[in-house]
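Researcher: Predict the fold of Small ribosomal subunit protein bS16.
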Amino acid sequence: MAVVIRMKRTGRKNAPCYRISVADSRNPRDGRTLETLGIYDPISPVEDLRLRLDVERARFWLDRGAKPSHTVNNLFVRENVYEGKVEKPKRERPGRAKDTKKRANRAQRKASFAAAKSARRDERAAARKAAKAAAGAAE
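Model: Structure tokens for Small ribosomal subunit protein bS16 follow.
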């Protein structure tokens, strides 16, 4: 069973409120949950009431392999749920900096398009200047 930590929408129209809950990934967003970890009220005027979260239970579920949604992950970072956790080191990708034929062709094509665009712009400016001079001479 794949367990996720996500937000369950509550509240009325144009006044959202969310329950941060643990659920089976196959259940719908507002469906059955295993546990409710807290409440997130993004429009609350009181800063302390915007997010109420049981940090210990959140850590418990993360240790058991539950995957938080993107938004819940951001809330967890803000509340220091990951305190003491070691982040994965960023992997090295040495092939990303290599000059390849495709990259060279793409750069050449981009440069030619930029040169053509510049030539068209200069042509339009010269035509405008000539039209202005002709209008000034006609008066």
